[in-house]
Amino acid sequence: MGPDWLPLSACSVWNIFRVVVHRIYIKIIRASEVESEGEFVVSYTIKSGLANMDLHRVTELLSKAFWCPNIQYDEVIKSADNSAFLVGAFNEKNEQIAYARAISDKVRFAYILDVFVDEEYRKHGIGQGMIKYMLESEEMKDVYQWILITRDAHEVYKKVGFSVISRPLDWMEIRKERPKDRYE
Fold it and tell me: pTM score, two decimals?
């Protein structure tokens, strides 16, 4: 049977297989960062895989992001299910505090998006930790072109190896407005 949030009738055999595989081959790392003297220690666990994500919490987090205000649960489910790699950070109480995902063919290309860290946990390297986890994962090891779009976190991504795109005039896009019924 598929995850509780996804009706079985909507699951393909492939999606059920992916969930089972992610449950069996869960990848977990633990990290903590000690701030300067007198400040607190942030401990977190990074997990990957659809079965490990709290998509209700992810919806709550992403609904605060400027790129998808008030995103709905069904949008989060659909985008997570259609992503190649999902990663989340969890605090000591196992509450999800951050999320990121990648769309990829897992060979040549990966697009990282929806990188979001709960405001209370920012400035502790959690976002960078999730990106490093993606870049170093066994599942994504063959990818040789990684991209992302950022409005204001260029310095954060530079710390994990990203640079401004080398051939910006080669890239093209079709940009449509997000349907208004999704955020009104």
Answer: 0.75
